[in-house]
Amino acid sequence: RNMSSAGPEGRKMMRECEGLIDSLVYYIQGAIADHEPNDKATENCVCILHNLSYQLEIELPESYAQSIYMSKEKQRRNISNNDKTPGCFGTRSRKVKEKQQDTPLPEEKSNPKGVESLWHSTLIRIYLSLIAKSTRNYTQEASLGALQNLTAGTGPMPFAVARTVVQKANGLPSIRAMLHVSHPAVKKTAVSLLRNLSRNNSLKNDIAREVLPDLVSILPECVPGCDIACETTASICYTLFNLTQSSSHNTRLLLSAHGLPKVIAISMNDSNMFSKASRAASVLLYSLWSHTDLHSAYKK
């Protein structure tokens, strides 16, 4: 667990170590099957996988990444002969990000081995199961954090993981429950994961319907004093920004949840005018005002 947080070279060596990732996944599967999700060894295994998933999209060799998605090239070309297929893992441009919102999901191997397991739906479902069943805060945080890492990029893999979490594995109820735990780091990581998920246009309405009222409910009445709560508040505002951008319907959900007064109060907090939370709230307000059909509702 300590070695897995030793930096890029350490992660590379551990990802390439034959049988290591498979063994970690095997142990966690056994713990869940035996209804023992709270033991220390499971926590350690999940924390290692969490660390090994950090920056996975940009640290995998390009040749390896291309081989994973090679089977989808023909499908992409059939969908649009005019669209040039973007790079698989390393691309960071806004234009490519917009194209990849609707990129077909990569095919999964039925029996993944080693590093392939890190983004496979089997492990994604394991993380969601631990989030739902474990009462150990470090295990919950590491499971959420692994999913946060896997959804942090802009290529096909992060968006495929996001769709698996939201649509295939029905993970939003488990994530939503973590918004209301007392442990601040768990709550912060859950919000950060939702922020990543909310970047996917095809998932915004599902996410808004499931968790937008909960996000509003945990917004404070003003900028929090401690750093972790301030960061969580900022992340909530940016998640709401993603969900309400270009969607009057989702914006109405925010209004009906009485979110606007909270956002205004956070943006105008004099003692922390330049805090992350105040800036994020201001960005959200500016975006909300772009829905001209709702101006009268705002004024009320």
Automatic annotation (TrEMBL):
InterPro entries: ARM-like, ARM-type_fold, Armadillo, Plakophilin/d_Catenin. It comes from the Eukaryota. One of its GO terms (biological process) is intermediate filament bundle assembly. Residues 98-111 have a biased composition (Basic and acidic residues). GO terms for cellular component: adherens junction; cytoplasm; intercalated disc; nucleus; plasma membrane. It is found in: Cell junction. The keyword Repeat applies. Keywords: Cell adhesion, Cell junction, Repeat. Belongs to the beta-catenin family. This is PKP2 protein. The gene is Pkp2.
